[in-house]
Specification:
By secondary structure, the chain is α/β, with parallel strands linked by helices. The protein has a single domain, classed as Alpha-Beta Barrel (TIM Barrel), CATH 3.20.20. It contains nine helices and 14 strands. A hairpin with a 2-residue loop joins β13 and β14. The longest helix has 14 residues. Bound molecules: (5S)-5-amino-3-OXO-hexanoic acid and zinc ion.
Length: 271
């Protein structure tokens, strides 16, 4: 089986220090967390910008610092968020992509997101995809609900996007698809041929869905953006602790963990 790509979603836009005291916020903290996660087996870090007071931002300068500081510390694929935080404009959200990071996310539709609405107008999605393609940024298609994988397939058929595709199933957001084995199996059944996939289980769904992905030949995303606990009632001590556990489970199943260069190869990215 292909080696396992572990993505560490380090910070997100919603989690607070009150919920997770070890949440990395500043570019230095994010770079340290990326280094620890890379050591533990992550080949991709999914990053969100925050101002020092914790406010989410898509400020290009904040992302520039994050990318540079991560690169100074280690080799790991930096994947910037274009989801940002609910309520940001499309233009704001696209700003970090102009830094030409190795990888960026692209949300494939609108969805209720807790008590908010995460808006992704088709015209904006089109601009995001075109910009990423023009700048040579590898896209991770973020799929929160079933209609979004249908859109991936529709775009592929229309020639708006092309293989190799990499899809992230984000399962368990209140308002979107459930974080259940059945949901994952359905999503996987709808993938275009040859696409690679990863799963980001939210909250308590993180570990069971990660374990399923390891067995099924998918890839895994863990980290504080999606889940702040190690187990019920016990906060994780770091993002790296969550990465380490997934790497350990994978190795127990005789599935080796990919290095960043191996991940680039699997995803069809330049070395
Ligand atoms: N913060 C969410 C509203 C992404 O990073 O691309 C969207 C999000 C998706 O986190
Ligand atoms: Zn994100």
């Amino acid at each position: 089986m292909e080696k396992l790509i572990i993505t560490a979603a380090l910070t997100g836009a919603e989690v607070t220090r009150e919920q997770q005291p070890n949440l990395p916020i500043t570019p230095d903290e994010i770079a340290d967390a990326a280094f620890e996660c890379a050591k533990a087996g992550a080949s991709i870090v999914h990053v969100h910008g925050r101002y020092d007071d914790g406010t989410p931002t898509q400020d290009k300068e904040v992302y520039r610092q994050i990318i540079n500081k991560v690169r100074e510390r280690c080799d790991v694929i930096v994947q910037v968020s274009t989801g940002g935080a609910v309520g940001m404009t499309a233009q704001e959200r696209l700003a970090p992509v102009t830094l030409k990071p190795e990888m960026a996310t692209l949300s494939m539709g609108s969805v209720n997101f807790g008590n908010d609405v995460f808006m992704n107008h088709p015209d904006d999605m089109d601009i995001f995809a075109t910009t990423m393609k023009d700048l040579g940024v590898k896209i991770e298609y973020e799929v929160f609900d079933t209609g979004m994988i249908t859109t991936v397939n529709r775009w592929l058929k229309k020639g708006l996007i092309s293989a190799p595709l990499h899809v992230d199933f984000v399962l368990g957001i209140p308002g979107a698809m459930a974080g259940t084995p059945e949901a994952l199996m359905y999503m996987r059944s709808q993938l275009p041929a040859e696409a690679s996939w990863t799963v980001a289980g939210i909250g308590a769904a993180q570990l069971p869905l990660a374990t399923m992905a390891i067995i099924l030949g998918g890839h895994v995303r863990v980290g504080f953006e999606d889940n702040v606990y190690y187990r019920k009632g016990e906060l994780a001590t770091s993002n790296a602790q969550l990465v380490e556990r997934v790497a350990r489970i994978s190795r127990e199943h005789d599935r080796a963990v990919a290095t960043p260069d191996e991940a680039r190869k699997i995803l069809g990215m330049p070395a």
